């Protein structure tokens, strides 16, 4: 196969670069309307509607919610199957669990706790921090099973102290779930699992039903219908983020290895045709050689993995969304990266820690030549549920903080209110909120 569709784009300023990589993920109107109809139906008709849509979209024959609920016997059977047949994978999962748990436990120690101050006699101010009681973790279905997504979403919730964690995930064609998921549910002590996916799962969790108590928050990645549903129900329930296609940007200088760069760009391209892969470099030789290595790596993947590697997805992603951007200025390269605010950012420079000092935006950042995104995806410990589509300019990866809410607390005694009553009354009077003013005055009537 002769491949020659990639090129180097030389830029002199941020505007030229924006024209190359710009592109905003939007949910198509027909998907939004379809999802809104599903959500409305489930809000009105509860679990009966959720089961109806599951039967329709996933070709199931569930009679009721009990049919769609995973039994403990199924979980135990799957757990035992994986334990016996795949002990090496079990070791990998245990290592991943330990690393992810360690990171989030450390994260927990840096989260603000409840606190109070007494700035003067009779007056106290503070904040209490309380954990969410019940959350839903959504696990994607489809051709592949994603054990890492289970670990990344459940562990921070457990470390935070969430008491009830319910899982929704689409069923396989025979109505079962993958044994690996079943292993993880037992490993993580998850007992409430529904074989329901898509918009119907999000709506059921958001509004609850006769036999399902609604959750406070829904987290976890999903397809565009899941994303549209999360957007629709937001406000009735909390969500983690609206995830778009996966993306990577790599900052590389002359010290970097084009083989590694090519391999890492391809690792994002295989996610789906809309995945974005961007190389930012101040060295033209690195730019040109990376393109050569990309083509070589595609041929290697085909020969190494045969039909297991989805070459069509990779090629479509690269053709549409792979950009090789070159500038003589490393400062401009860093500025471009900050504007892109990529989901994954790899820094392959001579001194990556020094480069990191200039990074303002990046969902998850990987330093050096020996830290590909795959480390963070599976085993490193940092969370891989990360803001996409440039939203890293204002949001963060999933963490223990996503499972807390905070409340401000105020206490005034009579003397404290006396000292400040006129300030309150004057501001209320200015805003013409006279009942507000009176609520203070009434406390001083003899």
Helix content: 40-55%
- Class from secondary-structure proportions: alpha/beta
Give the neighbour order of strands across the main sheet: 1-11-10-9-12-13
Total domain units? 3
Number of helices: 17
CATH superfamily of the largest domain: Nitrogenase molybdenum iron protein domain
Query: What is the mean pLDDT?
Result: 95
Q: Identify the overall geometry.
A: globular
Query: Strand percentage, roughly?
Result: 15-25%
CATH class of the largest domain: Alpha Beta
Predict the CATH topology of the largest domain: Rossmann fold
| Computed CA radius of gyration, to the nearest angstrom | 26 Å
- Main beta sheet strand tally, sense and closure: 6 strands, parallel
Whole-Å distance between the termini?
93 Å
| CATH hierarchy: architecture of the largest domain | 3-Layer(aba) Sandwich
Describe the structure.
This protein has 446 residues and is an alpha/beta fold. It has three domains: 8-22 and 244-381, 3-Layer(aba) Sandwich (Rossmann fold); 29-239, Nitrogenase molybdenum iron protein domain (Rossmann fold); 413-444, no CATH class. The chain is built from 17 helices and 14 strands. Strands 1-11-10-9-12-13 form a six-stranded parallel β-sheet, with helices on both faces. It has a five-stranded parallel β-sheet with strand order 6-5-4-7-8, with helices on both faces. Helix 2 (29-58) packs across helix 9 (224-233), helix 4 (72-85) packs across helix 7 (179-187) and helix 10 crosses helix 11. The longest helix has 30 residues, at 29-58. The protein is globular and about 90 Å long.
